[in-house]
């Protein structure tokens, strides 16, 4: 690939295909035809998939009367990056291959086209890192997540990803150039130290566009990772399961501390009240739904990141090998492997659709006139029981302590009575 996006760079050193041998020319044009066909297929599938994803998100949210969630917002940014890859990277490359061996545009058009081809290739992995960071913040640091704005942080992360993609694509203006006038080619120029600069640029691209984003995404997801069972589902990330439970318990304790006005002084009573609340049916249902949605969202983004890593891995490794040892690999093998990297833009929308089948059904099956209003299930933690302590004083300096526990999820009251025991008579100060 010459260190940049160009599936055709394998034949860039051929001065004129018409002066080459017949076998070489036939092989060259057969490979060009193969690349045009497979890129056209990928372009069509990716375009349809991403447009369908846009329809599912907006139509589904409209049917369920919901706003776009922060995760959906970042998924939409990724969808836009895939669409840009379809038009700017695959589309322009198909046109270039069809015009081979000459490039019909000007020198500036050559530079700008290569810049536009590189831009979505940086933007897509950077946006995946933004999704990973957002999920890490929401699950492993929930208090900081709720203190910040719901949409400000995802928008800032997406803006940083797009900005870095624009910046890191700039070297394309310096390494591409149209040579030999009107009937020249759009090819790479690396200056006097061609091999050194080329190798550095290739390694830099593969590191920044593939390796580092994968490492950052793995860090956000796999901190203290263990293979374990969580809620009867085999989960890769122990951090997610732990964080969901810990954040829920912290939220419950925070509510307890606000509701208790110092009336309960014994630790045994506090533990007893919390156990009653945790055993309530409404509490368990809401916590189970909350944890399920969190883990499902994380599994979705993990799958997208993993597909991005494994689909681009063969291409990036071969790209480095081709730069360091140009004659080691067969051109046909290189072009066949490049197909895997292009498949990434096709899979992203279908992965989201696979993990959100109920959302897809609502978007497809419910029309505006027949759909019933869907109420969004609240994920707010249930209110703790109301605790009422009544002290009844009797003439013989004894008292009965009655604690009434009112469960919000139940229509009945549970009362516990402590044993009757002598207590000290109230002081004069208390009586006054």
UniProtKB/TrEMBL annotation:
InterPro entries: GPCR_Rhodpsn, GPCR_Rhodpsn_7TM, Neuropeptide-GPCR. The chain crosses the membrane at residues 32-58, 79-103, 115-133, 154-175, 200-222, 300-321, 333-355. Pfam families: 7tm_1. The keyword Transmembrane applies. Residues 49-352 form the G-protein coupled receptors family 1 profile domain. It is found in: Membrane. Residues 411-420 have a biased composition (Polar residues). Its main location: membrane. This is G-protein coupled receptors family 1 profile domain-containing protein.
